[in-house]
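=== Structure Prediction Worksheet ===
Name of assembly: unnamed complex
Input type: mixed (protein and possibly other molecules)
Chain count: two
Listed entries:
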Amino acid sequence: MQLLRWIPLATLAGILAGTASALLLVSLNLATTLRENHPWLLYLLAPAGLVVGLLYRHFGASVEAGSNLIIDEIHNPQAVIPLRMTPLILLGTFITHLFGGSAGREGTAIQTGASLADQLSIPLRLAPANRRILLMAGVSAGFASVFGTPLAGAVFGLEVLAIGSLSYEALFPCFIAAFAGDLTTRAWHVHHTLYQVSSVPAVDVRGILSSIAAGIVFGLIAMAFARTTHAVSAFAKRHIAYAPLRPFAGGILVTLAVLAIGTTRYIGLGIPTIVASFQTRLPIYDFAAKFLFTALTLGTGFKGGEVTPLFFIGSTLGNALSNLLPLPPSLLAGMGFVAVFAGAANTPIASTLMAVELFGAEAGAYAGIACVVSYLFSGHSGIYHAQRIGNSKY
Amino acid sequence: MQLLRWIPLATLAGILAGTASALLLVSLNLATTLRENHPWLLYLLAPAGLVVGLLYRHFGASVEAGSNLIIDEIHNPQAVIPLRMTPLILLGTFITHLFGGSAGREGTAIQTGASLADQLSIPLRLAPANRRILLMAGVSAGFASVFGTPLAGAVFGLEVLAIGSLSYEALFPCFIAAFAGDLTTRAWHVHHTLYQVSSVPAVDVRGILSSIAAGIVFGLIAMAFARTTHAVSAFAKRHIAYAPLRPFAGGILVTLAVLAIGTTRYIGLGIPTIVASFQTRLPIYDFAAKFLFTALTLGTGFKGGEVTPLFFIGSTLGNALSNLLPLPPSLLAGMGFVAVFAGAANTPIASTLMAVELFGAEAGAYAGIACVVSYLFSGHSGIYHAQRIGNSKY
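=== Predicted Assembly ===
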């Protein structure tokens, strides 16, 4: 009966996370619309980066580690996550998107979901073991609500902590929080983009081998992305001592890159291109361009998440692979969407569930193989470096 | 690159398991048809039980532990599973169903899948660590192919070993074997029953609370089933010293019970009633009758599996719960189908994936909640007593 007490607690965590995700999604829609209507905003990306850097330097030192701080706290509970994580990451993400950084939103949703949930542990005087569970529930609720995928969100909160193993301690609170979070975001009348995998052939040997081949490519790109982003970050730290100047420099480079190639296709969330990757053949270099823009944006210290860019990279890469593999472009786009993420976040089961929730059960079978293979080929250092190794991959 | 060597190995395990599952499914169709056309076969159930008992006493002592032997070998590899496990369990299951025992088939598929896979480890001189992985792949392939659900099968082979935790060591081989097994069974032109959840309302608070309530009932029934079957078995062992007489006695009781209530509805696999539970309202006691017939059949030593009867118990119980809960009968039938199994086998994630594969992603959301809650309320001793406890449920 102990368990039932998690119903109100996880529900509350879900309501908080879902509300924060609704606010985030509305603010990102606003930022995207403003940026598209006022292209000159891009010229302010460098100073905007400086503002984000200063914000975190003066108010956010304790929460700068972001998603990794959450994962560390779950592994080893020390102190309640400061509430300021929520406004800072929401504001930082809004600024990043308003002025044209290439970034995502799941990092933001995880941070708001977990930091808000953790505030409940103060009045309730939760023991560390229960704080951990509540934090995991907050992560699940944040992920579920920002993407509209409760099953994937529920498992993500369990799976992201360690590579190669999954513990069910927080299974029930994560499920409740994920569904409560998703319902809350929808109750705020915030809708999620729909992606349509238009044709799924019956699974056969050729389909399985193609999924394995695609999964290998997705995994290698996921590994390259995580390493490149870390390398950009390490390079910036080595050469730019004053932290707020790093996103300033990053902003200059992103702005120059946009001007050099003459398109804004690779900045922001990139939802229109993701949607297009399910509908039509796209340039085969789309994934590479998004890869570089995102590594530059996030590596230099802008805020947001990695996952929506990973969806972009994966779905356009999948689309490109349809030139080589005998599967429909929209199916490969769907497989890449989840599988590059599976490799980079080391979350194959959550990613498979996400494919099922977004694209249906038939596409989910192909996506499942691609996610597992991508996970195996993406190495042991993903986008969350606080993740521990539960079981080595090989 | 080590990993890629699992492709041929797991594929071979899948082909063997899928072929055995095809043979099993064809033989069970034959047994069911014969029994329905020749109702007098039921009068031979007791002597048939004696035959099964004698078979295992004289030829099957080394494999009598069945699915639990497989799980034990995976935890602690000692010696290759004797090949005879496969013909004995196929024959034992055929006899059980031909003469009217109430049993399933997943136990059979797991045993044929794993024991056939294990034969590969002799010529290949696999180290114990690799034998374990191959056994898990065999379990996945058997489960996937007998039910036509590759994602659920893949995860089942990982999840069934321990309660409350899941390790990814064998993730890739289990996926490959599961898909290869499923494709093989289909290549033998063996088809699976289709179940149709006819209406799924959008998830809302009432739906979530109803799913939790249903999940509690499903979990308690799952616990009661596992305990009753174990209790029947312990009782039979205490009072009937000569093992082959136990299924003989069980056969007499099942035969008398059928004659007393005047229907064959609760013997065999019971597929027609499961299908009906998705289509129309059924008597509310159906689940209880199937529960007793199955506990009596399996507890006294007939062969087969627990899972199809659990699907029957769950889907008819779900159907009955639609009198109390504000969800459609066919949706509750689908939820019960997977959730009683989730509780009894302690496999909530595989069961959720099964719901998605059989009933679609929308029903999967409800089923996911029901499976997690059922898992939490089913206690720590499920139908596989060799299962270890990775993490206590509460």
